[in-house]
Design goal:
Length: 369
């Protein structure tokens, strides 16, 4: 007996992803709950999480996220793919042990030769003692550690500490309207709790699929940076449903997760730099055409702010707040837009300008083809 596996096209996958990412319709949800639903927000740029939440939540205000950081309910820390994410305090304690192998691999690739022969535990203990006594920048940490290991590269010593000790970035880093270098202390010292035991891989698979599915094993490995997850998916197979994409790759999903019709309307959206939706699949054609990737993903690792039209990346945007209390939003489409699409982007852009600049500044929206 032949079992036919349903095939999901790019638009099917697109609408499912948008629904789970709260981008088909803004939702009324506390920011902390949204952060956990998304399993964190990419946060290499300090303001990225603010734009990410603004695009997804009704009536989101910057003060809500800034307060979460100041009250230690959310933190900025290196996690998936060894990159900075903003996560809830609870997820910080749970996720950090789960991605340790990712950080180990990244450290070895970047600084392995410079750390050969070093006692890793001794270095970790020394680094932890320093940042728990006085939070410091990576540069300051490296210099202090080089006093004990003068023959070692300071940057490598700081990186090894970041790898062994869960370092969180402290406010004012990450607060809206604030600036300055990132200073660090340990998650345990900042949160007053110890790291959790490593979460079950099955739990993380279910959370990933809830936020990013339907997805392949390779997709989740791309999102997390981990490898060897196939066996964990197989354990969960009885609890999951299976599909195929148009290339025949197997996709897994939660039975009751939203999978809207491929023709479901998708409103125009403006997403900030490093938005999760662009970084969480091996095959990203469900959200961005391969022809546009090199324009959005720069050679120096920046992921630019983009516009979504009919659910797909269709251009970029940038904001300039010059002198004279004037904020200018420039939208750069990759293709010709209809008048209705321009109107939708203009309306969304006006809301973005209001979010960023408030009512007092003059606003202007320009389209630059």
């Amino acid at each position: 007996m032949t079992i036919t596996v349903p095939v999901l096209g790019k638009r099917d996958l697109n609408r499912a992803l948008l629904a789970r990412q709260m981008l088909l319709k803004r939702v009324n949800l506390p920011a902390l709950d949204a952060i956990e639903r998304l399993v964190g927000l990419q946060a290499q740029a300090p303001n990225s999480p603010y734009y990410g939440l603004w695009a997804r939540l009704e009536d989101f205000r910057q003060e809500e996220l800034s307060q979460l950081l100041q009250e230690r309910k959310a933190v900025r820390i290196a996690l998936m793919r060894s990159t900075i994410h903003l996560v809830s305090a609870r997820d910080c304690l749970a996720l950090r042990p789960w991605v340790q192998a990712v950080l180990n691999r990244g450290l070895k690739g970047s600084f392995g030769k410079l750390l050969t022969g070093l006692d890793e535990q001794e270095l970790a203990d020394a680094g932890r003692a320093l940042v728990e006594e006085q939070p410091m920048t990576s540069n300051e940490l490296g210099k202090r550690l080089s006093e004990k290991w003068p023959d070692r590269d300071p940057e490598a010593l700081a990186a090894a500490t970041r790898n062994s000790v869960p370092l969180v970035q402290l406010p004012p880093r990450g607060l809206w309207g604030e600036s300055g270098q990132a200073t660090h202390t340990s998650a345990e010292a900042w949160l007053g709790q110890t790291l959790s035991s490593e979460p079950e891989a099955e739990e993380m698979i279910l959370r990933y699929l809830s936020a990013f599915g339907p997805a392949s094993v390779k997709d989740m490995q791309t999102w997390s940076g981990l490898t060897g997850l196939r066996s964990e998916f197989e354990k969960l197979r009885p609890r999951l449903v299976s599909f195929q994409d148009e290339l025949g790759n197997e996709l897994f999903d939660l039975p009751d997760a939203p999978r809207p019709d491929a023709d479901s309307p998708s409103p125009a959206r403006l997403l900030g730099e490093f938005d999760n939706i662009l970084l969480s699949h091996a095959d990203r054609t469900r959200i961005i055409d391969d022809a546009y990737r090199n324009r959005v993903f720069t050679k120096n690792g920046i992921i630019r702010s983009v516009i979504l039209v009919d659910g797909f990346v269709s251009g970029m945007w940038h904001l300039n707040r010059g002198s004279g209390k004037r904020a200018v939003l420039t939208i750069e489409p990759f293709k010709k837009l209809t008048s209705q699409e321009c109107d939708e982007l203009t309306e969304e852009g006006a809301q973005l300008l209001k979010f960023v600049a408030g009512e007092d500044e003059a606003h202007d929206i320009r389209f630059n083809y």
